[in-house]
Structure formats: C-alpha cells, structure tokens
Specification:
Elements lengths: L7 H7 L2 H5 L2 H19 L3 E5 L7 E5 L8 E5 L17 H5 L3 E6 L8 H17 L11 E6 L1 H8 L6 E7 L6 H5 L3 H4 L3 H6 L13 E6 L4 H16 L4 E6 L9 H4 L4 H11 L1
Parallel strand pairs: 3-4, 3-5, 5-6, 6-7, 7-8
Antiparallel strand pairs: 1-2, 2-4
Length: 275
C-alpha cells in the first residue's frame, strides 16, 4: 500500500477531482468564463495590480462601490499547477452583492516554482494588498482570505499573518503527504520535508482569526477527510473554527455557494465578519 489502504492507482484516483466530476465540469468552466468576462465588463475592476516582480505576481481587485468596505482575497485552486485568476472572477458576484470588495490572487505555478515559493508568494500578495488598502478605497484594518482546493492549503498556510481578520477554507488539502505520493507530484517535485513544511495540519498557528472549513458532501472521500481532520485539529488547538459541510456539492460546484448572492458560504462569511 502507498498511503493508508490505497495502492498507487487508488491514491491517484482519490485526488483526481476532474475525473470524479466528469465532463459536466467542462461545461461549467465555460459558463464560469462567460460570467467572469461579463463581470470584468460591468465592474470597474482594477486589473493586474503588481505585488511582485514575477510575471504572475498579479491581483485583480473588484471594488464593491462602497468606500471603506471590507476586502476578501481569493486564492484559486488547480493543484498548484493549473488555472489563472481570470477564471475565477465570477466568484466576486456573491461578496460584491453584500458590499464586500473582492480580489483574486495569481501566483507562479509548478514546475516553475517549488511549494515553498508558492506559499511565500501568497504571503507577499496578502502583505501588498494590506499596504495598499487605503489607495484601493477599502477598509484599512486588514483583509479576509478565502481559498479553494490548493488555494485552501495556501490560505491555511498564511492564517497567522496579523492582518488577516478571517478565512474560508473551501475543499482544501491540509496534509500534503498523499499529494507527494500521488501522480500530482510529477510537477510539484516535493520531497517529504517540503511536504511536511507546507502541510497546514502539521503547523496549526497558536492564534488565528475565525475560520470556516467547508467541503462538499459529494466530494471524494479523501477531500472530505482532509477538511474534517483539519477542523478537528483546529478545535483541539483552541482555534475559532466552524465546520460547514455543504450537502450534495462536489469539488467544483461548491464554489457557487460563495459566488451566489444567496449562497450559504456568502451568508456564513457575512456572519463571520459580524462576529
């Protein structure tokens, strides 16, 4: 066995979200692209703000139109080796409807960078955004951060940053050892020490802002296990965590609960801010 009770084929399948969801995700991704493009046309978004010197060190900032509003930073997924921030502009629909600014972070993808470097880029992006909140017309007392899938791991790795006021971890990966042992490591190239250094489950902060840990009820069992274990460990470490499993959602459809003005994650995030 390679990991727990899984052989190599079983472990690879246990983390292959695209294969588990099937062709319907292609149609959904095309719809998301159209919604994102429409939002870029109708919102006075500040595009490609530079937080560093790298070609992918860029942020898109969607202002909600209310001076001094809070800001939610979003870290996209793609197993640290796929996707661009532009694909996830549609997620702004939910936060914007509630008077919350929204920003998407782009970061360097493997194999052009190691996992250590990706985590450092997210820290850099958060710090840059916090320094420029006043210029962006936003509340200057910090930011909220959300991440999906690989973005959930990246978000969890920066929870201890002092300017982060709250977080949403959506279908995240919090123990990277099974990733290291799976097909996904072909581009990531992690060894065991690097996987351990970047596993949020092994590095829970002594203090952290309130957080929501969420996962779809129809996700792969390993993804559900990862979120459940991270939530339990957070509570055991006296962190202010809420566990919010979301019904019949799979790995990708769960994003609609933040993208929708009436979504459960949108509502839970508003409640988190109120607390």
């Amino acid at each position: 066995m390679i990991f727990r009770d899984m052989d190599q084929a079983g472990l690879d399948a246990a983390y292959n979200n695209a294969a588990a969801v099937g062709p319907r995700q292609q149609a959904r991704a095309a719809e998301w692209k159209k919604r994102s493009e429409a939002l870029f046309q109708t919102n006075p978004v500040k595009r490609d703000l530079r937080y560093g010197d790298g070609p992918r060190h860029r942020i898109d900032f969607f202002p909600c139109g209310r001076p001094g509003a809070p800001t939610l930073l979003f870290v996209h997924g793609g197993y640290w080796q796929m996707n661009d921030k532009e694909h996830f502009g549609f997620v702004a629909e939910g936060p914007l409807s509630q008077g919350i600014n929204f920003a998407t972070i782009e970061y360097t993808l493997a194999p052009a960078i190691r996992m250590d470097g990706i985590v450092e880029e997210i820290r850099q992006a958060v710090a840059w955004t916090v320094r420029h909140l006043g210029e962006l017309g936003a509340a200057t007392d910090g930011v909220y951060v959300a991440g999906h899938s690989a973005g959930g791991q990246l978000t969890a790795m920066v929870l201890a940053e002092p300017a982060i006021k709250g977080a949403i971890l959506i279908s995240g990966v919090f123990d990277l050892e099974p990733i290291r042992l799976s097909y996904l490591n072909g581009k990531l190239g992690m060894d065991q020490p690097e996987a351990r250094r970047n596993s949020p489950l092994l590095h829970l902060p002594s203090q952290a802002p309130p957080l929501i840990v969420t996962v779809g009820g129809d996700e792969l069992p390993e993804l559900r296990r990862q979120s459940e274990e991270y939530y339990r460990a957070s509570i055991a470490n006296n962190l202010r965590a809420q566990y919010l499993p979301l019904g019949s959602h799979e790995h990708f459809s769960i994003l609609e609960e933040l993208a929708s003005p009436g979504g459960k994650l949108t509502a839970s995030f508003v409640e988190l801010m109120a607390r």
